[in-house]
Amino acid sequence: MDKFSFLHPGMKSHFSDRFVTRISDCLGWYKEGMSGDVGLIGLPASKSSITPSHSSGAPQTIRSCLNSYTTYSGERSKDYKDLRILDFGDVRIHPTNLDETISRLYISVKEMLEVRACERYVLLGGDHGVSYPAIRAFQDHYGTVGVIQWDAHHDVRNLEDGGRTNGTPFRSLVESGHLKGDHLVQVGIRDFSNAMKYHEFAKDHGIKVYTMGDVEQTGIVPIVKKEVERLSKITNIIYLSVDMDAADQAFAPGCPAIGPGGLTSRELLASVSEAAKHEKVKAMDIVEVDPAVDFRDMTSRLAAHVMVRFLFL
Amino acid sequence: MDKFSFLHPGMKSHFSDRFVTRISDCLGWYKEGMSGDVGLIGLPASKSSITPSHSSGAPQTIRSCLNSYTTYSGERSKDYKDLRILDFGDVRIHPTNLDETISRLYISVKEMLEVRACERYVLLGGDHGVSYPAIRAFQDHYGTVGVIQWDAHHDVRNLEDGGRTNGTPFRSLVESGHLKGDHLVQVGIRDFSNAMKYHEFAKDHGIKVYTMGDVEQTGIVPIVKKEVERLSKITNIIYLSVDMDAADQAFAPGCPAIGPGGLTSRELLASVSEAAKHEKVKAMDIVEVDPAVDFRDMTSRLAAHVMVRFLFL
Amino acid sequence: MDKFSFLHPGMKSHFSDRFVTRISDCLGWYKEGMSGDVGLIGLPASKSSITPSHSSGAPQTIRSCLNSYTTYSGERSKDYKDLRILDFGDVRIHPTNLDETISRLYISVKEMLEVRACERYVLLGGDHGVSYPAIRAFQDHYGTVGVIQWDAHHDVRNLEDGGRTNGTPFRSLVESGHLKGDHLVQVGIRDFSNAMKYHEFAKDHGIKVYTMGDVEQTGIVPIVKKEVERLSKITNIIYLSVDMDAADQAFAPGCPAIGPGGLTSRELLASVSEAAKHEKVKAMDIVEVDPAVDFRDMTSRLAAHVMVRFLFL
Amino acid sequence: MDKFSFLHPGMKSHFSDRFVTRISDCLGWYKEGMSGDVGLIGLPASKSSITPSHSSGAPQTIRSCLNSYTTYSGERSKDYKDLRILDFGDVRIHPTNLDETISRLYISVKEMLEVRACERYVLLGGDHGVSYPAIRAFQDHYGTVGVIQWDAHHDVRNLEDGGRTNGTPFRSLVESGHLKGDHLVQVGIRDFSNAMKYHEFAKDHGIKVYTMGDVEQTGIVPIVKKEVERLSKITNIIYLSVDMDAADQAFAPGCPAIGPGGLTSRELLASVSEAAKHEKVKAMDIVEVDPAVDFRDMTSRLAAHVMVRFLFL
Amino acid sequence: MDKFSFLHPGMKSHFSDRFVTRISDCLGWYKEGMSGDVGLIGLPASKSSITPSHSSGAPQTIRSCLNSYTTYSGERSKDYKDLRILDFGDVRIHPTNLDETISRLYISVKEMLEVRACERYVLLGGDHGVSYPAIRAFQDHYGTVGVIQWDAHHDVRNLEDGGRTNGTPFRSLVESGHLKGDHLVQVGIRDFSNAMKYHEFAKDHGIKVYTMGDVEQTGIVPIVKKEVERLSKITNIIYLSVDMDAADQAFAPGCPAIGPGGLTSRELLASVSEAAKHEKVKAMDIVEVDPAVDFRDMTSRLAAHVMVRFLFL
Amino acid sequence: MDKFSFLHPGMKSHFSDRFVTRISDCLGWYKEGMSGDVGLIGLPASKSSITPSHSSGAPQTIRSCLNSYTTYSGERSKDYKDLRILDFGDVRIHPTNLDETISRLYISVKEMLEVRACERYVLLGGDHGVSYPAIRAFQDHYGTVGVIQWDAHHDVRNLEDGGRTNGTPFRSLVESGHLKGDHLVQVGIRDFSNAMKYHEFAKDHGIKVYTMGDVEQTGIVPIVKKEVERLSKITNIIYLSVDMDAADQAFAPGCPAIGPGGLTSRELLASVSEAAKHEKVKAMDIVEVDPAVDFRDMTSRLAAHVMVRFLFL
Ligand SMILES: [Ca+2]
Ligand SMILES: [Ca+2]
Ligand SMILES: [Ca+2]
Ligand SMILES: [Ca+2]
Ligand SMILES: [Ca+2]
Ligand SMILES: [Ca+2]
Ligand SMILES: [Ca+2]
Ligand SMILES: [Ca+2]
Ligand SMILES: [Ca+2]
Ligand SMILES: [Ca+2]
Ligand SMILES: [Ca+2]
Ligand SMILES: [Ca+2]
């Protein structure tokens, strides 16, 4: 038998410390029959973005940032090294037919749910357009879904002007009946970043809206805590949808639609932690990270940390 | 008649959503006889800067960032889409004669005020040197002017060592009598960023100085609120002068004189909002943004948002 | 009448030298009834790109680079300051429906040709996918078209795998009969950058292919000269299609598909000059410049210079 | 005698203002027999870093950032212009023998202490590996040393897996007996950034650990104040070891191991100020700044400001 | 059995064209018993570099750039899609013991050769220090080795001043007798980039030196052709050692020791092609690419193309 | 006596090889009474630039790039390690008075020449505006001066439109009679980069103009050789004025006015070498390098190499 002393074809050659478990060590490719704790899927679609975006590159970058995190929480004195994350890979998208892409995203999330390999799921966009097919798939599988959306924007634009862009997912979901208005909570909505018409759409459909002004006044954690509690009573599962542009541009400089006056990294992480710990929270997507314009993958690192707060309870 | 289906020579071809009014939609070039709500002028001069600066490029970049903002405030449930901003363009500066440049800035602001087309004005620098001719023009037109200056620095350097640089505008104004010391308020002054002599000059002339320590202790909004109130009683109009380096380098990485320990974007925006809403506040300049060294126009975006908080009351 | 001394609302405030005519001074927006020498149109479409691309931003950047060039050729002791360029603006593209976008490009180029305002045309992409509708429009208007294509790639991929991407324009044109194989000349084709199948497609359809090896041996100018001569005898007009990735990555670092071993800037400019001077050459497109990944707009500057060589004969 | 009017060979030619004392003006090269207030030494070693790092470049960059700071504190109305900083230069490191480098660092710090020219010292890394020889030298010279470490990480990795890396300094110090466990305080430790084993090592050896959760709850200044007080009673001197990655990546984007959820610049500066003012605090190192990956020297500027807070009491 | 429609866990989800074979498609991880055409090994060591270098990252980046190249040469009308490249992975290096690292590199190359799976080999550095253990291993395995070295530098520095750095590999090889002086050819040596002493060392030991002046006069291809011919008669195998800094900084901006006046990309590629086609040429290393300081992986792309010219004959 | 083992306060701590002499080792600050081979002076003025420029930073950056070059020429088998370069430092410029700055530059160059410490001189700009006072000082000191100017531009703009900018130095010199038209040779002049009026000015005054077309046809070395020969017969000394934008943007990406179609690095270096070796060539300035926009100091490295070719004959 060949025996190489310092070569391991097919394996990373990075330095490793025998006592450190990296989150990437918990990750393995899904194979038939496997079961695990959390399913991971990449939804690398960003051609529906209104502004220039290569957020299709984010699933790969965020995955590689997981290598920077360990499985240990000192705050809770707890090591999560036994958590098993099954990676279903990235959906193959169509280069020119965007409707076909949405359809593939829906089918793929559905197929992943149907193998029932895991209890909870992380979905990595892509732009926010991916939440439309994704949440639809969850609704079809689990029944009534509640959604907490971290976002500077309502994302309920009309579809006539540009079709199903990344500005429309929640419009589509609410109008198609896959998501009831009062099952949707929006946190971090920013002034001078939305249209009156869409704010009114939100109010008219009973969407619960919390602005940065609300966050400033009461803190974001109490808001999220209260709404998760409320949703948990009227929905089967809760789905977190994290548009990274909810964070201030200083903390998430790699989002396509960056701007000032948003959440700090600590506010974002604490509020996701708060939400994730409720047992009805079964899924989270992370969207709108464009690695091509980021600084040192800072935004992908933050996204990976958001994911970590969802993974380990 | 020619009819093009998808071409509109002379107009932007960007995606537009029928329900969204962008701030850039409120902007039009001033033409004789027009009147509007806010006058906008560019003061693209930065050759007087002590440290390297291309802040002369900021008027163009900040204007283009206005395209990222809408006219709607969700906090106030109010759409400002009818506000009319008249753009007077940029002052043509002289490439080698800096005194001539200062003179042109003064004359141009004066001429803009004299057509009395608007009630309120935004002036986009350029370096802080532009505030000297600008405030002088306002004083000549309106009489006694009060100034709130957001800045890490006093800007009251002596003129012997380098002439009228961007470190001297308030020295010049106070010494020439165009601005009384106690009509000037400085907020955000940082430790180890100024000289004792100039702090003493400020105290000796009755300039009201608030350091970052003061901001940390009492919050910036109460400081600004109190001082606007005070100034409103002793001056005809109040002029806000926002040196973007008052913000921490994490939030305004594109200022020539960046440094740590400054304001967050939320502190800056909230305090400008607070000031702007007083009816005596008639003008604001925004200075010291150098687009050439910025990251993704982050500092220009913040500057544009500062402008937004002044525009919409 | 208002008279501003140094303000000209709506006009650039840059330094100007009374004896210098910039190419941008020759440019004006097309208005009904106008006629000029060269028509300019922007085709800002890049969502059909296989690899990530924001070449949709190029029309704007290349236009602004025209400001760096004057109208004077010292080599020929000739000033072209009277050339009149009519700018038809940019085609408004659809954010999610790419077939609709192709259709709009075709219609817009067609409509531009139909007003017969100019004799010659420059079309600014966008990715290479724009050449399919553009050349189709020229063929419909002028009859038989010959094409000289500067490119590292054949661009004759199959359409089954991804639809009408930027890798397919010449496949589509040849198969649809809008362009005869031997009316197409490809210069600068690079080794290990194409598939055998597509080289065979080229040969089978009589496309004339010149590789970098050919360029190295005989020089690019003689190749282009000979082929323009040949095409001029068998076609009504000749259309130049310049994929900027024909240039070596050192000279055009901002193309999506950069690579080494390509043309120098001097080879590219000289060969375009050579081609443009033939009277049958009526149009040129310039494609595959992505300003978002460029260094100091270097690739847009080169593209603008390529355009200059076409403009001034 | 030669008299140049505007040339001063060997001196900087920057603009200077007669009333401004820059911190760099307080700095001079140490020469035999000199005495001063603070000794400065560069420890430009980063080849022991686990992840890629050129933090060896930091001593030079941080020194040059001192030029941006003045000696005046407005908060305290005090000018420190008479403080004398003696610069001992940078230790010459060995390019390939890392043990030799550690030995040179130890010897050099020791030799600096032995000339007894100053009362207090600043040491500029390099990576955190430099703290092992540095603190050892202080312990040999002063006897019992207490350490406050700002860091996201424990830095108590095992030495078997990679030798004496930048992840091991405090392990080495504690195990070798140069530092007692309860003489070490770690502030800013972050979740999912450390291994359980090492947290246990810390607890087992009595190291005092404060996480970001602790900072969020009680504020960082009270923590530091309490611990300096405690250490001052049981040690001869206190040494501050500031790993800049304790700061959030938004505030210190140039650290090799950046990440979200850390200290703000204001928290970092205030807590260092608090610590430094105790008379037993005699030394500070600043480590893990990599100028090669920073944005506009932002992290070096923050490091320089941290240094300023130690210098001026 | 699970059947996913658009998911393939463990496989890339990139767009693929059925007729395109990418070089990455020819690559597979070596497994025991396999045989192939070319063996590939990564030597990710750069801590021995004199100037700052993260060329340890190059094996990963160059491999990923292979994805940009196809297997087809139009110049030769030949498709190399059946070539089989066995990837032995990267040698695991030691973080702090550089002698141990050299030893691991030697052992690993040796072990790779001993499984006799391939006829020819590509070795990806790392800095030029890796050539010392690598060539030693080849000499031990094959007997007398001839070397053609593309480089701006002689790399025959003394070992006393810094140990076995990246400036010493050929000194070590010649002095240890593993490489006879006249079995070594250096091409591209640049003026004012080397010391007289080392030029003399080269001459004294019979090393064949060709400067950029020689390249300018006679062309690089004839030089390489002649020397391969000569070496082929006196050695068992020929090993190409390509230090990418032989190329001009415009073509290889990502080398640690960039400079002007070097080879163009076309000169480099043509000369490697010329050398590689001789049957005695069995191995090539590519060194001194630092992806951390490169522009758009330009230098890694060039390196990958150099590799391609060696792979396909 | 203090003895530090590895510390040398005031000296660089870089790795040094005992056999390597770096050019920086030949440099020392001028002190009264010294004499040497070449005098070096920095002219850090760029506020007169028409387009944005921080070329005032170039003297410092180019000096530090000298550290990358050795004193040995392999082409000539000659070591120049005994050459002595006296550095007169940088002229202190005025921040706001540009006429004063020009006056200081003139006086400083004059004063340097008057101490007669050296035979030959290198002057580092700054923008091209510095050549006006510099050449004037040489003319005053040496009598008739001939100038070879490498440049894409004529630099003979009118002075009415913007005063004494970097576009006017040769206009000023010719009109003031300090430089006769036929004593000025311009090489590398580019098409569409100049105005007809200024080309005519050149011709009318007998300036010898060589375009890039001339360079392409006959090679640049013969042109320079012939003109140096000619000038040497009709002038006392010859002064080389190297505007780095004569090089193509691929080779000199850090010039303010970059563009394609220029000289390669090898053409530039070879032609400067050719000129410098004539005994009448006594001075060279290098201008228009802006380190603030460069890539990895590539342009400063090229500038330093240009300087090297002048230094060593
Ligand atoms: Ca969204
Ligand atoms: Ca959003
Ligand atoms: Ca200021
Ligand atoms: Ca300021
Ligand atoms: Ca193409
Ligand atoms: Ca192409
Ligand atoms: Ca540490
Ligand atoms: Ca750390
Ligand atoms: Ca080498
Ligand atoms: Ca080398
Ligand atoms: Ca010039
Ligand atoms: Ca020039």
UniProtKB/TrEMBL annotation, chains A, B, C, D, E, F:
It is an enzyme of class 3 (hydrolase). Keywords: Histidine metabolism, Hydrolase, Manganese, Metal-binding. Binds 2 manganese ions per subunit. InterPro entries: HutG, Ureohydrolase, Ureohydrolase_dom_sf, Ureohydrolase_Mn_BS. It comes from the Bacteria. GO terms for molecular function: agmatinase activity; formimidoylglutamase activity; metal ion binding. Its EC number is 3.5.3.8. One of its GO terms (biological process) is putrescine biosynthetic process from arginine, via agmatine. Mn(2+) binds at residues 128, 151, 153, 155, 243, 245. Its cofactor is Mn(2+). Belongs to the arginase family. This is Formimidoylglutamase. It comes from Mesobacillus foraminis.
